[in-house]
Amino acid sequence: TAEAYEAAFDAAVAADERIEPRDWMPEAYRASLVRQMAQHAHSEIIGMQPEANWITRAPSLRRKAILMAKVQDEAGHGLYLYSAAETLGTSRTELLDKLHAGRQKYSSIFNYPTLTWADVGAIGWLVDGAAITNQVPLCRCSYGPYARAMVRICKEESFHQRQGYESLLALSRGTPAQHEMAQDAVNRWWWPSLMMFGPPDDESAHSAQSMTWKIKRHSNDELRQRFVDICVPQAETLGLTLPDPDLKWNEERGQHDFGAIDWDEFREVLKGNGPCNEQRISQRRRAHEEGAWVREAATAYAAKHSGKGAS
Ligand code: 3HC
Fold first, then answer.
1. Which residue has the least CA distance to atom 38 on ligand 1?
2. Mind listing the pLDDT tens digit for each residue in 139-177?
3. Pairwise CA distance, residues 48 & 133, whole Å
């Protein structure tokens, strides 16, 4: 009976067991996972644009090779996440159509421009750092395919974060102009990175239910606070200042107090009014159209060689 299935699902989640694709699950659980996993995947592939913007202008072959590897990783993360979402009965085609039609989101952070080479380091250190803080708990998410995709993605994100940190360190300790370029990038990427964790808990539409289902393991504000506490000592080592005059250690809380986030800016970016929203989506649509021949060729090849043993 439906009640028995519901009870079995609740017991599995309560026991921290994994829900697998063939298990019965509430339709609302499925729908919320498709929503989150699709938007996570969209974030990965849109995130390739601001970073790729500097591949042809990287200051050395070494930096170019690292950046190319990182952008390729982001495409791969998108692939894992679309594949994991497809285990819930949707298709990559359908999800991409929704992205292109503006009916599904991607992370607000990628609607900001990468104005100088130092932005590549700031993205690695702050954006990938925030992504890791948000994604490590997702390795314990109740839905098996999502949790398993996160394990490998987190390993690769660590490389992304470290290369960004190292690049910023080189700039910060370089010439005064390089130090200023690194500081300017941190000034522009700090607050949008805090917005990656989502709206404040009391304005989060999904958190309560998502935490009941053990999809979300910590609240938006908890992870945001954790990220701030991680970044403060790192900024000190970098010799860079975080652009928040209210940022200070609170001995009583054992955490850093920090200033107010501009949630109007967050809402505007989510509405599509960020600096680069239009550019990102039109570039994405163009890439999809220009890539149609690759998809057709791969489909034709698969049809021709299907059932003829190893192709
Ligand atoms: N950008 C865009 N939309 C956001 C957002 C952000 N920074 N933060 C929240 N939202 C959206 C939510 O998607 C939701 O809208 P929806 O109903 O249309 O999906 C709405 O705002 C309300 O937010 P909630 O807190 O209620 O939503 P969630 O419970 O889903 O929490 C989240 C938001 C913490 C981002 C959660 O979805 C999550 O953990 N997602 C997986 C992680 C992820 O997507 N990370 C993207 C970072 S970029 C990245 O990973 C690339 C890396 O390689 C650099």
1. 36
2. 999 999 999 999 999 999 999 999 999 999 999 999 999
3. 20
ipTM over 0.95: yes
The β-bridge partners of 19 are: 143
Structure tokens of 291? Answer: 């890539």
For 61, the token pair is 């072959």
Element (H, E) at 294: helix 292-305
Taking each helix axis as running N to C, give the angle between helix 27-46 and helix 92-100, from 0 to 180 degrees, rounded to the nearest 10: 70
3-state DSSP of 83-125: HHHHCCCCCHHHHHHHHHCCCCCCCHHHHCCCCCCHHHHHHHH
- Least Cα distance to 42 among 16, 81, 5, 12 occurs for 81
Residues at CB less than 6 angstroms from ligand 1: 35-36, 39-40, 43-44, 47, 74, 77, 105, 107-108, 127-128, 131, 134, 157, 195-199, 204-207, 210, 216, 220, 270
Atom of ligand 1 nearest to the CA of 74: 53
pTM: 0.96
Give the CA count within 13 Å in the CB-facing half-sphere of 202.
1
**Angle of helix 144-172 relative to helix 61-86, nearest 10 degrees?**
160
In the structure, how many helices (H) and strands (E) does the chain have? 14, 2
Using alpha carbons, select from 263, 264, 280 the residue that is nearest to residue 102.
Answer: 280
